[in-house]
Amino acid sequence: MNTMIIAIAASAGIKAVVFFIYLFLYWRYRERFLGYWTLSWGLIALKSAMDPFIFNSSNFIPTFFFLQLTAIGSLLFIAWGTCQFVGKKMPKMWIYSVLSLAVFSTVCVIFKLPPLWFIIPTALLFGSIYVHTGVMVLRHLDTQGIGKMITAWAFIINGLHQLDFPIFRPTEMAPWGYLLDAFLRLIIGVGFLLAYFEKTRNDLERQEARFRLLAENARDIIYRYRLQPSFACEYISPAAEDITGYKPDEYYANPGLIIDTVHPDDRPSLPKFDQTLRPTEMPVAFRLLRKDQSQIWVEQHIVPIRDKSGDLAAAEGIIRDVTARKELEQELFRLDRLNIVGQMAANIGHEIRNPLTTVRGYLQVMSRKQEFEHYGDHFRLLLDELDRANSLITEYLSLSKNRLTDQQPRNLNTIIESLFPLILADAAISNHVVRLELSPVPDLPLDEKEIRQLLLNFARNGLEAMAPGKTLTIRTTADENSVILAVRNEGPEIPPEIMEKIGIPFFTTKENGTGLGLAICYSIANRHRAKVLIDTGPRGTTFSVVFRRS
């Protein structure tokens, strides 16, 4: 068999094998540059099979045009795909040069000029494009694997090999030239495969590192729990320690910790990690117990991960600390209730007081008449009850949203010191100790009467909450942004269910309380643009009023 035919058949076979490999890859991954490479290898294989018949064909011109189109197409597609692969635009000069060469070679064929007239420019242009493509792979392909080096140098060597085509094509070395071309293209194909998988692996590693960095720097807890074949924590972000106090390693060591930290009262409302688990359309809010046993509010989004058979395999979720938002909602709810009560006070408070004043006056007149002397105890009881009702209305009016205040620059320490003897007298009656810890504070716009009422309410509540012999501490501090009045008692810890209702009008735990004392304190603080904070624990409770300095 002719050596040329064997070389051409081997060359075409090798190129066809590479074409089918790239066709499979494109069908599998649908990458555009893989599609361009597939088209290029298909045209290369077709041209390789037809090339030796060009000069022996009776229809020389049509055959030449066909081979010219396949050569141009294979060159441009492989160059275009490579440019996309390395992230660069294809130089337009390549397209213009190839099209100009096509026109020139067509003119040469039509006018039957010597073949070397168009073979030499073709070899020079094709060789330079291959060399430039190899250099571009070396410079711009974002990977350092062996596939990059193999592909780049195979392109460069093949480009140099294109230059010897006019010399060896008419000689007996032509079969070896075809085999060398096939071998170099095979190396290019294999190198591209290696470079593609190396780049894919690098991209996945970078993407994983990017997402891991995002997860580890997120303020929310991001977690993944494996449910089959056994329950285990596969990943939990470092934010877990900031929010719950538990380190990620503790969750890995104890997979049940994520359930154990949920407040016992909220566990029934959470979705169970079983086959009924569904994605949460709305975040589920519940309470968590931190490592120090303090309580926080969180919201959770959860997504079930199922295997091919539809069984629940894992659960992924995000947990966000919403304690500050919950406290704000509670504060807004409390202020809203105060506003409602204040509006009621403004509307009906004075109307109720007027008839009570009339009734009290008539009772006083009637109690002085001789015929009613034997009803004296009854009159005194009625007058006491009217006075009590009047005092309740006075407190009720203190909640009025539109109440006028006389806020003048005053010093908080001066107000405290002027009220201290009265607080001291109340403490002596109940066998308590009162201690002042006053730091220098700047003057603030204050209504002295309201601040005295606020301080007296906090002090009396603290005295009533403590056992005899305990100490009530009144403290003032200041920083750049605020002035703080703190009243600390050594009474028992306030239960969470009561903490949620503190400041709501008419809510009280005292037998004879009205439920307006703390509500009035919140209303006064609101009118002074201040905020009431409560810190409670086994050693006592501190009520702090934070006044803004500007």
Automatic annotation (TrEMBL):
Residues covered by the PAS domain: 207-270
CDD domains xref list: HisKA (cd00082), PAS (cd00130)
Membrane-spanning intervals of the chain: 6-27, 34-54, 60-81, 93-112, 118-138, 145-163, 175-197
InterPro entries named in the record: HATPase_C_sf (IPR036890), HATPase_dom (IPR003594), His_kinase_dom (IPR005467), HisK_dim/P_dom (IPR003661), HisK_dim/P_sf (IPR036097), PAC (IPR001610), PAS (IPR000014), PAS-assoc_C (IPR000700)
Domain PAC: 282-334
Domain (Histidine kinase) ranges: 347-550
Enzyme class, first EC level, given as a word: transferase
Catalytic activity: ATP + protein L-histidine = ADP + protein N-phospho-L-histidine
SMART domains for this protein: HATPase_c, HisKA, PAC, PAS
Keywords assigned: ATP-binding, Kinase, Membrane, Nucleotide-binding, Phosphoprotein, Transferase, Transmembrane, Transmembrane helix, Two-component regulatory system
E.C. no: 2.7.13.3
Annotated protein name in UniProt: histidine kinase
Organism: Anaeroselena agilis
